[in-house]
Amino acid sequence: MLSLQANLYALPPTATAGPVRTLRGVDAATLVGAGGGPPLFLDLMPVTFEAMQQRLAELPRCDCEPDGFFLVTGRTAEGQFWRLNGHMHELRPDGADEPRMHRVELAGECPPGTLDMVLRTMGWPDVELAFELVREGVTLREADFRAWAERSES
pTM for this one? Predict the structure, then answer.
């Protein structure tokens, strides 16, 4: 089971390797932007709000609201209840015909396969994503994010 609270963005091409931080007992390589500060999340995902929302609505046990909030729930084979909720945010770049997804907030607990289904609605795995950990104030690549999310919060 994954336990997470993160903002997901298209990986900025200017993001570089930052310091390694120990988070939940996992040594994770962080990502930084110019000058060592946080990455600038200026790139957009390749999907529109409407396309992502339509893909989410096709997932089992997913409820999507018009404002971009969504909730996916289920039970493990052992009967443990889980839930993953999110909120979609779009932007219209200058000169673009229509807005595209800028970030998706995700929080909750879910099996890895459920996270994969939600990520696919954003264009993953064709688009590499950056995972900004809200509480920890760091940004990670997918592999380090998954290692972190697999560990309990305690």
Answer: 0.93
